[in-house]
Write a structure and sequence with these properties.
With about 325 residues, the chain is an alpha/beta fold. Helices cover about 30% and strands about 30% of the residues. The structure holds NADP nicotinamide-adenine-dinucleotide phosphate.
């Protein structure tokens, strides 16, 4: 028997409960893992509260992230006792996920734990951190350099936002944080490397087709009118890496930033990101993230606290990253 967060659906309502479950109920997969740590991402919040259609079949175990130790293996890349990370590939959505003491997975979904990284710090990074790294890399690949000007990060207090700010600062970029919680989080965001803080309210006004140019690059985790505003303020040849929808999935914009300023909108997906790109991103994250990130931008909780934290993340009340100790 092992402990897990189980989701069931009754009368179209999602019911979440911590329960013991028999190991024989795990799917017959290539790798059995003892989970050391999982984490709570925005998507986990949507799954656990039932506020988003994340879970494909009930009963389910959520948790899109996990890091742990291989207990049984049919694949020589991951021998018994080796440490692994799993993010994406539908784990915690279509397949039972990481908010459990044990999980059965396909070998192709895994990456080996990067040298120099603990399973706990891997989950402090998690899907959010991997996505932040992919966003930063997309701006670098679009030839946005530290001297080109400021880089705007929206949803700055969140997992993706706070990690993106830290990474940009470490790489010598001037990162400007947009947050709805300036009072609460300015000190943390400045410690992580934000050069200035802007109130989210300024980005929630309807955008004109083109506004004054301010930003060489941007990382947007919010979508909707905030992303529309960001696009209208981009510098000539600027680039925006868009990965999120915390403010909505619509995009009330015009073609003007694209056709008159050559602005590039770069879509970022971490779920089906290729293996080599993933491994490279994890290595870069391990090298770049300073100790203060792990110490100050992360909270550790137990499996019993996950239901409460799922509500909090959906209500925009979580700062930084939340790791779950199994
Ligand atoms: N494409 C991918 O592969 C991928 C991967 C990971 C995450 N995501 C998406 O990226 C987004 C951020 O994920 P996360 O894990 O960092 O979530 P998170 O920790 O909840 O951060 C989201 C942040 O957005 C801001 N926010 C919340 N509600 C908002 C609203 N109604 N309007 C405007 N801003 C709002 C808050 O920051 P402030 O309080 O500072 O404003 C919040 O901390 C989510 O939409 C998630 O689904 C996508």
């Amino acid at each position: 028997m092992f402990n897990a967060l189980i989701l069931e659906q009754h009368d179209k309502k999602t019911i979440a409960e911590i329960r013991q479950i028999d190991e024989s109920r795990l799917p017959n997969e290539e790798i059995l893992v003892a989970v050391d740590y999982s984490s709570i991402n925005y998507k986990d919040g949507l799954a656990i509260t039932g506020k988003g259609r994340v879970i494909k079949a009930f009963p389910a175990i959520p948790g899109i992230d996990l890091a742990g130790t291989v207990l049984q293996s049919n694949d020589q890349r991951y021998p018994v006792g080796s440490k692994i990370i799993s993010t994406g590939w539908g784990v915690g959505e279509s397949y039972w996920g990481g908010l459990a003491e044990k999980v059965a997975l396909k070998a192709d979904w895994l990456v080996p734990l990067t040298d120099g990284l603990s399973t706990k710090n891997a989950m402090k990074i998690g899907t959010a951190g991997l996505t932040a790294m992919l966003c930063v890399q997309a701006l670098i690949d679009a030839d946005i350099k530290p001297d080109d000007g400021e880089i705007l990060v929206t949803g700055a207090s969140g997992g993706v936002g706070s990690t993106a700010i830290t990474l940009l600062a470490q790489l010598g970029y001037k990162a400007v944080a947009v947050t709805g919680r300036a009072k609460e989080n300015s000190e943390l965001l400045t410690t992580l490397g934000a050069t200035r803080i802007i109130e989210r309210g300024e980005f929630e006004e309807p955008a004109r087709a083109l506004e004054q140019q301010h930003w060489a690059g941007a990382i947007d985790t919010v979508g909707s009118k905030v992303l529309a505003k960001v696009l209208s303020q981009m510098n000539y040849n600027g680039a925006v890496a868009a990965c999120g929808l915390a403010g909505g999935f619509d995009l009330p914009t015009t073609v003007m930033p694209f056709i008159l300023r050559g602005v590039k909108l770069l879509g970022i997906d971490s779920v089906y990101c290729e293996y080599d790109k993933r491994v490279q991103a994890w290595q870069r994250l391990t090298t770049l993230l300073p100790e203060k990130f792990y110490q100050q931008a992360c909270t550790e909780i137990s499996l019993n606290e996950t239901i409460h934290y799922a509500e909090k993340i959906i209500n925009g009340q979580v700062t930084g990253r939340t790791v779950v100790k199994l």
